[in-house]
Design goal:
Strands 1-4-2-3 form a four-stranded antiparallel β-sheet, with helices on one face. Helices cover about 35% and strands about 30% of the residues. It has three helices and four strands. It is an alpha+beta fold.
Length: about 80
Amino acid sequence: MIEKDIKVSVNFDTRQAAFFVQTANRFESKLELILEGKRINAKSIMGTISLGITEGCDLKILAEGKDEEKAVADLSAVLVK
């Protein structure tokens, strides 16, 4: 399992959320996001939108599976420019 803390540096609107979820769904690993104690499946558009991710917030990405390292790297790149 890999955990990575990041500071979101993009405007995370619904279009960005959709792109994030599309990226997450390319991976076999179990992927989760944690924001302010709320934990969701990163492959769920409704879960991702419900977190209320905003630019400047601190977010944790968790990944578990055979492609976890690539998943965390690619998802981080979507949130940090």
